[in-house]
Amino acid sequence: MLLVMVFRILLLLGVSYLVAMQDPFFTLDLSWIHAGMTGQSLILFLGGVFLLYKSTKEIHHKIEDIQAVGTISRKLASSFLFRNGHYANCAY
Q1: Mind listing the pLDDT tens digit for each residue in 7-34?
Q2: What is the rounded CA–CA span in Å between residue 57 and residue 51?
Q3: For residues 33 and 91, what is the distance between their CA atoms, to the nearest angstrom?
Q4: CA torsion 79→83→85→91, rounded to 10°?
Q5: Burial level of 48, CB count in 10 A (0-12/13-18/19+)?
Q6: Which residues 6+ apart lie within 8 Å of 23 measured at CB?
Q7: 87 contacts 81 by C-beta, under 8 angstroms
Q8: pLDDT per residue over 35-60, tens digit each?
Q9: What is the pTM of this model?
């Protein structure tokens, strides 16, 4: 538990160090774009990518649960009807 707390503090110090960096790590100078990657922009970019990943994963998980619940409820209803003989007594 102590190791986890120390690791979290070190990560927090590392993030605060990256955010404090004002000089760019590298610059991109092309004819149509001029940009520099600083610590702040790196944190914002990685945070945005993380949020996109988590939201996409959550949406897929919810869709799979809805499909699975529908399939399970249909299977339960059909097994109940077959077991109690309702289909056997029906005239088609």
Answers
A1: 999 999 988 887 788 888 888 888 888 8
A2: 10
A3: 74
A4: 20
A5: exposed
A6: 38
A7: yes
A8: 888 888 888 889 999 999 999 999 98
A9: 0.53
Alpha-carbon distance of 80 to 87, in angstroms, equals 10
Q: Do residues 66 and 73 make contact, with C-beta atoms less than 8 angstroms apart?
A: no
Query: Can you tell me the distance from the alpha carbon of 42 to that of 52, in angstroms, rounded to the nearest whole number?
Result: 15
Q: What is the pLDDT at residue 9?
A: 94
Helix H or strand E segment including 71: helix 39-83
User: How long, in residues, is the chain?
Assistant: 92
- Give the residue, 84 or 9, on which the prediction is more confident: 9
